[in-house]
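Help wanted!
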Amino acid sequence: MAERRVRVRFAPSPTGALHIGGVRTALYNYLFARRHGGDFVFRIEDTDSLRFVPGAEEYIIESFRWLGLKFDEGVTFGGEHGPYRQSERREIYKEYVEKLLANDKAYIAFDTPEELECKRNEIPNFQYDARTRMQMRNSLTLSKEETDQLIEDGEQYVVRFKIDPGEEVHVNDMIRGDVMIKSDILDDKVLYKSADELPTYHLANIVDDHLMEITHVIRGEEWLPSAPLHVLLYRAFGWEATMPQFAHLPLLLKPEGKGKLSKRDGDRLGFPVFPLEWKDPKTGEISTGFRESGYFPEAVINFLALLGWNPGTDQELFSLDELVAAFDITRCSKAGAKFDFQKGIWFNHEYILRKSDDEIARLFAPIVANNGVDETLERVTQVVSMMKDRVNFVKELWPLCSFFFIPPTEYDEKTVKKRWKPDSAKVMSELAEVLESVQDFTVEGQEHVVLAWVEQQGYKLGDVMNAFRLALVGIGKGPGMFDISAFLGKEETLKRLHKAIDTLK
Ligand code: GLU
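Answered by r_m:
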């Protein structure tokens, strides 16, 4: 058989904000598609109208736009296999439900919720399957005429998949290998409901994967229990030859302790679990996103790529292209991946370092302007180059850097106690005079003159510099002193020195 072109899909249900685990699923699909020169399809699985949340689809699309993960076809992207929204494919599913019915692979069931409840009370661990289906009200126990009549009378029904017992169902998983379950444990799943004339997830999922020529189904571990049923559906349709290969990705786990990562973990420990900020349309509750928290999309991608997959080397920093080149789905782990959000912060820091000062300055400049400071981009870039290695997020720059732009209005009490000695005012006055005389006010130009003066006076360099720092910065921290004074320039440096002398005495 000719090699098929690789086609994968990301198929979220628009039930709310996209969880970060969903983003990872999409990322692995993307990497797999690119690695194998295939297509990445975006499908919306919205057959469960009760769970539909307005705005969710737009949110998902915007998330991937921000992350820079491009789909080749799908909802809003077009393509030859559309429509890509399941709610727009009702007629297609009906046809396939009819096929299963005609081939005796499915049957119509009329049992009301009350009748089902009654059975559950009667039979312990009741399951609608080969052992019980002949006791129920369905097209297997009713005559054809009765069945047709009930439908004609408008009675609601569902179509159930007729699963044969006594079979071993094998799912060939690219990560987990051969997963086998016995068909006896499966129930006759509902595939279609007359009430809303819509198929259930299982049927729509399989029909679409088939019609959209999907070759590999890469999805979260929570779908592994459905996989045997999906394999049986492919068989029932006679589509074994083009059945996709499966890969069920490991769960994302809590940063500490056991269990699945939840939004509550994020709230509790202070990290986002959504790519973008999300406002719940029902409750109005706002949840922060990675974007709004100041993460770079590249950092989020790099972080997620390594949650459940490893390249087999020590390399941690990967561009998207490097990830594509390195990605091998068989290197995904079976065991759940701890969501180490500190590592996510570390990645962001690394990307700050890797980005040019100019790029960071362009992000920082609006913050500077919002604080009422009018500075050129060049000056902001100078500050960024001195300070960016100290922060994990651009938003952390302002509190650390504001002194470059705004003179201190007060002096940190503790630092004053420790660093402002009885003779500091006198020494700083002398320093001001020395600096006044410096022609070349660059870092080297000042250093040269000031160090000579300190030595000649027999002062302790540490004491001088500490007081100098306090005068210019207002606290005991910051980059190299002459870097600061060179940036401020002679006039501003002297102004700040005199102000400190006057204030602190
Ligand atoms: N609609 C399912 C979800 O929301 C898709 C599962 C699958 O990829 O088969 O995750």
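OP: Thanks! One thing I noticed: The mean pLDDT is 96.
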